[in-house]
Amino acid sequence: MTPQHTGASLRELCPALANKTYFNYGGQGPLPTPALEAITASWRRIQELGPFTSAVWPFVEQETARVRQALADWCGVGPHRLALTENVTSGCVLPLWGLPWQEGDALLISDAEHPGVVAACQELARREGLSIATLPVLELCRSTPQAELDAAVLQALEQHLSPRTRLVALSHLLWNSGSVMPIAAVADQLRQHPQRPWLLVDAAQSMGSIPVAEAARAADIYAFTGHKWCCGPEGLGGVALSERLLAEGQPTLIGWRSLRHEASAGSSFHSDARRFEVATSCLPLCSGLASSLELLAAAGSAEQRLEQIQAGSARLWHGLQQIPGVQTLLPEPPPAGLVSFTLAGHSTAAVVEQLGAQGIWIRRLDDPDCLRACTHITTSEAEIETLLAALRALA
Ligand SMILES: Cc1ncc(COP(=O)(O)O)c(C=O)c1O
Predict the structure, then answer these.
(1) Which of 45, 72, 133, 365 is 20 to 30 A from 329 via CA?
(2) Per the domain annotation, does 44 fall within a domain?
(3) What distance in angstroms lies between residue 55's CA and the mean position of ligand 1's atoms?
(4) Is the pTM of this model over 0.85?
(5) Together in a domain, 80 and 229
(6) In this structure, are 265 and 318 located in the same domain?
(7) What residue ranges line ligand 1, CB within 6 angstroms?
(8) 302-330 pLDDT, tens per residue?
(9) Are residues 308 and 351 in the same domain?
């Protein structure tokens, strides 16, 4: 079976894709029917075994361990480095707040980070007396071909690191321009710095869309969700943490799942990543995400899936160049599945609304003000042509 066919067969399993033209994978992926069935089967099993009976705990352990192992494998780390979270943001914020801060430390945050993560850094800075500096990458992405971008980002990093920099926040795949950041090389560069700044990576757009293991292994905090490119249910994500962070970071939002002996308040915390887990959560989501990950893995390796994603985004990017008034953010076909662009003379909100009225779903972004359409392995050529035709008609 060619990779193209495997994406098409996953598409057949997604009811969300049957009745619309869908490009919002960066917001939320569709849930394949086998994953939905795994969730309901898991819920049924809990009730059959009896919630809160000794019969149910082995099942809870099994499903939690299964998804933890699968996510750890994707991240190329041992399961002891993988904490289960609710979403990207909590995976960024919980370990961030537990780092050993000193007044006067500086945070270096890229200008392409998500507002939720930036706001959390700002509040942390206010409470701990830290300063914030900005790492400008967005303009570099817009003007530099991807082949030269890594060197340009590393140079910008060199220029903006200060002797007090104690953390760098940089997404792996930028949610606005769709550019890939050289996370492993950034980690190498930070290791040379006398302060050894922590590296916080928002992996909202990378996990499930591009190979992540090298970056996830290199970062101190590599936080992602299951509900975007992994096509899992909303409400379950994870974070891969470095050995250094596990040794030096303290848990922040503490509950019984953070404890080595969950029934004893006097217990020490888990020494592994579970110290950042909190309390009761929705177990059936673990069964659902494990199923989605298996379906994606069956559609090809991470590299093969990225090739399919790139084929779709390149087709869309080239098609957009032919439409008068359309300007893509990137000067060349995107390295992954996010395609951002503007349409002269049209407000982005109006374009989203007009396309939505035709059953074509893309989104707009505030900063920069632009439109964003995403292609996944489930995206068909017909969908791309439908979007291009609709934009041509608007233009
Ligand atoms: C780059 C990025 N970071 C964080 C988030 C927030 O994700 P979550 O709601 O899973 O925390 C998003 C969601 O769109 C995102 O694109």
Answers:
(1) 133
(2) no
(3) 37
(4) yes
(5) yes
(6) no
(7) 27, 87-89, 114, 116, 171, 175, 202, 204-205, 225, 237
(8) 999 999 999 999 999 999 999 999 999 99
(9) yes
